[in-house]
Specification:
Blueprint lengths: L12 H8 L3 H18 L3 E4 L3 E4 L2 E4 L6 E4 L2 E5 L4 E4 L5 H7 L6 E2 L4 E3 L7 H19 L1
Antiparallel strand pairs: 1-2, 2-5, 3-4, 5-6, 6-8, 7-8
Length: 140
């Protein structure tokens, strides 16, 4: 059975942002996302692997392989090209919310935004709430 390599680390989230976020805007957006995700999830930010900031944790078992492990419930990464926001669960409600999110690109399991000013933060917050609810329903 293959083991997931991305796990919680003891790296300081704020030191990571200061050293990794490549613009002042991305740093400020990262701090705003931390505040919002912590408020919505009720969980503190933790580094997952070298570049992702996650909130909460659940244990999953893949239906397609023998892989299983722990993963964050919601999170983000202030990557160079765009901020990767991990709040998408593929629910019907989220697909509706995406229509009014604003300017973004969709990845396989995340939403890419250039800056928070490009999106509706109330809609993003609703997506976080729905993602947390969906994760609890599916994984307990």
């Amino acid at each position: 059975m293959s083991e997931i390599k991305t796990k919680v680390t003891d790296v300081d989230v704020y030191e990571f942002i200061e050293s990794f976020a490549n613009t002042e805007r991305k740093k400020q957006d990262s701090y705003e996302l931390i505040k919002m995700m912590q408020e919505v999830s009720g969980e503190p930010p933790k580094m997952w692997g070298p570049t992702m900031i996650g909130f909460g944790k659940y244990h999953y078992k893949s239906n397609r392989s023998k892989q299983e492990g722990d993963w964050f419930v919601i999170g983000f990464s202030p990557r160079k090209a765009a901020i990767s926001v991990y709040v998408y669960s593929g629910t019907e409600k989220q697909d509706e919310l995406l229509k009014s999110l604003g300017k973004y690109k969709m990845g396989k399991a995340c939403i890419y935004v250039n800056k928070l000013a490009d999106i509706n933060l109330d809609v993003l917050k609703q997506m976080m709430i729905d993602s947390i609810k969906h994760t609890k329903e599916v994984w307990g």
